[in-house]
């Protein structure tokens, strides 16, 4: 089944070239099926690239998924034209009466700020509060995972001595959990952040189950016991060159950052990038959509109230 996206969204051309099946909303209304309604709150600076990354994963499932892109009203992106946002995005006011099967909130380059200092923090709190009754399942990525854990459970973040950047190995903690069904015992995933979570503190919250960890990168994957909240501290959605582009950007800005680890063959930047996380990324999103959303969400979303 395809992922349904807005007509003329530039990411559609990329998906077409990669043979990822999608359809426009106009065509989807003629399908005799109720698609999963998924909202994506895109907080990343390069919104077009982030769209492509998540749509690749959401479009590689057997389920029909209808996408609504959201942006903040309290903060105007400096990297995306307002005309583009007006054409393809909605703000919370446009959707606050709607119900969704799922919500994805992306990472954001604001992790060194205290949560309350983030320009759109109050708006994000409103969205998280709204999601409790209007969204069946939520997936929080990187900074959003830290923000949601702070909002819902009071779990703070810790600033790292240096930026964590690269591809890290992870170990599955509970092989029987549906979210990690089919995972290898050890798998790889990208990380790109300046902060981390205190695993010992997280483990004290019985409402949360830690599902995968890394010796170097810490907690990677966790979920609420009812499965309606999933927290991913890494960036499984990243494409091949994202870490390289971030590293180049940081160096140009004069930041003291190290070359992403386990990224180039032999850790040699003159060699090719070695993609080791693509299979895991697809499996993670397939499992989440199937076991945490599709098999449990009510057919009539209004029942969430």
TrEMBL record:
It is found in: Cytoplasm. Gene3D superfamilies: 3.40.50.880. InterPro entries: Class_I_gatase-like (IPR029062), HST_MetA (IPR005697), MetA_family (IPR033752). The record marks 111 as: Important for acyl-CoA specificity. It catalyses: L-homoserine + acetyl-CoA = O-acetyl-L-homoserine + CoA. One of its GO terms (molecular function) is homoserine O-acetyltransferase activity. The record marks 192 as: Important for substrate specificity. Its EC number is 2.3.1.31. Substrate binds at residues 163, 192, 249. SUPFAM superfamilies: Class I glutamine amidotransferase-like. Its main location: cytoplasm. Transfers an acetyl group from acetyl-CoA to L-homoserine, forming acetyl-L-homoserine. This is Homoserine O-acetyltransferase.
């Amino acid at each position: 089944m395809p992922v349904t996206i807005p007509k003329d969204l530039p990411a559609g051309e990329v998906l077409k070239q990669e043979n990822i099946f999608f359809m426009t909303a106009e065509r989807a209304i003629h399908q005799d099926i109720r698609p999963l309604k998924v909202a994506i709150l895109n907080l990343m600076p390069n919104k077009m690239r982030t769209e492509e990354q998540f749509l690749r994963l959401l479009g590689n499932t057997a389920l029909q998924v209808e996408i609504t892109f959201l942006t903040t009203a309290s903060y105007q992106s400096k990297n995306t034209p307002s005309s583009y946002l007006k054409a393809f995005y909605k703000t919370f006011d446009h959707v606050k009466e709607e119900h969704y099967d799922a919500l994805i909130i992306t990472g954001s380059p604001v992790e060194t700020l205290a949560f309350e200092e983030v320009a759109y923090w109050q708006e994000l709190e409103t969205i998280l509060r709204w999601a409790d009754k209007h969204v069946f399942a939520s997936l929080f990525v990187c900074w959003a995972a830290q923000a949601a854990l702070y909002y819902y459970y009071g779990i703070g973040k810790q600033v790292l001595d240096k930026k964590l950047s690269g591809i890290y190995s992870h170990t599955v903690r509970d092989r029987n959990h549906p979210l990690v069904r089919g995972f290898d015992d050890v798998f790889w995933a990208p990380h790109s952040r300046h902060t981390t979570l205190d695993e010992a503190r997280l483990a004290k919250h019985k409402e949360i189950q830690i599902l995968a960890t890394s010796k170097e990168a810490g907690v990677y994957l966790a979920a609420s016991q009812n499965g309606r909240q999933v927290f991913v501290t890494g960036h499984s959605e990243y494409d091949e060159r994202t870490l390289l582009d971030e590293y180049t950007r940081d160096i140009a800005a004069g930041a003291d950052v190290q070359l992403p680890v386990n990224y180039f063959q032999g850790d040699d930047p003159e060699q090719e990038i070695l993609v080791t996380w693509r299979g895991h990324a697809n499996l993670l999103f397939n499992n989440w959509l199937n076991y945490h959303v599709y098999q449990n969400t009510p057919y009539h979303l209004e029942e969430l109230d």
